[in-house]
């Protein structure tokens, strides 16, 4: 059982972050925010696969204006990603945004910071301080200390600005493309502040490599109880980020959404096209939102017993296979009927 770090609790729309709230899965639209229809469509697609919070890039006032309609039509809370221009932050708050991603030290004069923070406090809009290793302040970049310490120092600087203005609806992220730098930064900041932490390995890469880096980085921190929200950053359809995020949480028994799939590695005893079969099982049941484990095993002799921890499963033989439930065989059918029989038994058992 993982003992989570206790943090303060904030609300982003109807989603609780921190405290004893479940770890939430986030993603970010890659659409032009000014294109309301495409953006709303992608938000809905992300929500359909379980995404709980979506971030939008707000590059100019036209994007800020589009926020008003997008918020009205969004099924999930939205975060506006703001860089440098305090006026965009104010515009987004006025247009109903649920949270900001904003580094207060980067938006100019103190009076401009105060305007944003005052309005955010009035409207109870949280601010995520997002430190990226590649865009640190010049004076911090030049210091002769490890990169992770530079990231922490930058975060603490921005946090202090908000705390000096009596603002504590804060969430913090410290992201690097280097896994160990990311881990070190989060471990350090976790001991220094009470605020919830958003985890991510930035610029993690394409699907395969990005999931590996994110799984190692996020998984290490989550296993230590660190982290309140996560994003798996991938150069891919953002839907894949959400799927990977829940898979990471499921592997640590921190969240359960949809089916947990397990399958054995192929070996010389396998008498069925196991690789193809396992992929078909995942595809068929990927949208089944039940907290169950389904196993795909290659050996009819040992498979059911080895996967008796699974709620349901199939094991292949020569031209046929077995459907089992909690390790007990409940049906024997031709190979081409395995998936349909498995589905029938799962549906019948779940009623």
Could you list some keywords that capture this structure?
351 residues; alpha/beta; TIM Barrel; Sulfite Reductase Hemoprotein, domain 1; 2 domains; 8-stranded parallel β-sheet; 5-stranded mixed β-sheet; 12 helices; 15 strands; 19% strand
In short:
By secondary structure, this protein is an alpha/beta fold. It is built from 12 helices and 15 strands. Helix 1 (36-48) crosses helix 2, helix 3 (86-94) runs parallel beside helix 4 (110-123) and helix 8 (207-223) packs parallel to helix 9 (238-251).
Walkthrough of the structure:
The chain is an alpha/beta fold and 351 residues long. The chain folds into two domains: 243 residues, Dihydropteroate synthase-like (TIM Barrel, Alpha-Beta Barrel), CATH 3.20.20; 91 residues, Sulfite Reductase Hemoprotein, domain 1 (2-Layer Sandwich). The chain is built from twelve helices and 15 strands. The strands form three sheets. Strands 8-7-6-5-4-3-10-9 form an eight-stranded parallel β-sheet. A five-stranded mixed β-sheet has the order 11-12-13-14-15. Helix 11 links the parallel strand 12 and strand 13. Helix 2 runs parallel beside helix 3, helix 7 packs parallel to helix 8 and helix 8 packs parallel to helix 9. The protein is elongated. The mean pLDDT is 92.
- CATH architectural grouping of the largest domain: Alpha-Beta Barrel
| Average of per-residue pLDDT values | 92
Count of helical segments? 12
Low-confidence runs: none
Oligomer: single chain
Helix content class = 40-55%
How much strand content do the residues show?
15-25%
Q: What is the tally of beta strands?
A: 15
Strand numbers in spatial order across the main sheet: 8-7-6-5-4-3-10-9
Under CATH at level 1, the class of the largest domain stands as: Alpha Beta
What is the CA-atom radius of gyration, in angstroms? Answer: 23 Å
Structural class: alpha/beta
The name of the CATH topology of the largest domain is TIM Barrel
The largest sheet, given as strand count, sense and whether it forms a barrel, is: 8 strands, parallel
Tell me the name of the CATH homologous superfamily of the largest domain. Answer: Dihydropteroate synthase-like
The topology string of helices and strands comes to EEEHEHEHEHEHHEHEHEHEHEHEEEH
Shape: elongated
């Amino acid at each position: 059982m993982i003992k989570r770090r206790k943090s303060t609790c904030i609300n982003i729309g109807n989603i609780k972050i921190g405290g004893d709230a479940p770890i939430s899965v986030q993603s970010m639209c890659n659409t032009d925010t000014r294109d309301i229809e495409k953006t709303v469509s992608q938000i809905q697609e992300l929500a359909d696969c379980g995404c709980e919070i979506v971030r939008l890039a707000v590059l100019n006032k036209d994007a800020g204006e589009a926020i008003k309609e997008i918020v009205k039509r969004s099924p999930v809370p939205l975060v506006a990603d703001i860089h440098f221009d305090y006026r965009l932050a104010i515009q987004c708050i006025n247009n109903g945004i649920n949270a900001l991603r904003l580094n207060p030290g980067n938006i100019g004069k103190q009076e401009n910071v105060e305007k944003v923070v005052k309005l955010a406090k009035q409207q109870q809009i949280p601010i995520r301080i997002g430190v990226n290793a590649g865009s640190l302040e010049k004076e911090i970049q030049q210091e002769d200390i490890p990169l992770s310490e530079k990231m922490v120092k930058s975060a603490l600087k921005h946090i202090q600005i908000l705390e000096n203005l009596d603002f504590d609806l804060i969430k913090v992220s410290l992201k690097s493309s280097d896994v160990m730098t990311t881990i070190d930064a989060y471990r350090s900041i976790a001991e220094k502040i009470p605020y919830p932490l958003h985890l991510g390995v930035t610029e993690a890469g394409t699907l395969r490599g990005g999931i590996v880096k994110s799984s190692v980085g996020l998984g290490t921190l989550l296993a230590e109880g660190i982290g309140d929200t996560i994003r798996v950053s991938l150069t891919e359809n953002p839907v894949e980020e959400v799927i990977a995020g829940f898979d990471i949480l499921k592997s640590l028994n921190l969240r359960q959404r949809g089916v947990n799939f397990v399958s054995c590695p192929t070996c010389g005893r396998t008498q069925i096209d196991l690789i193809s079969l396992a992929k078909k099982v995942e595809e068929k049941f990927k949208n089944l939102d039940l907290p169950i484990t389904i196993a795909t095993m290659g050996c009819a002799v040992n498979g059911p017993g080895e996967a008796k921890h699974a709620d349901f499963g199939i094991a292949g033989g020569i031209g046929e296979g077995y459907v089992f439930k909690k390790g007990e065989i409940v049906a024997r059918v031709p190979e081409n009927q395995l998936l349909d029989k498995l589905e029938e038994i799962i549906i019948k058992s779940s009623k």
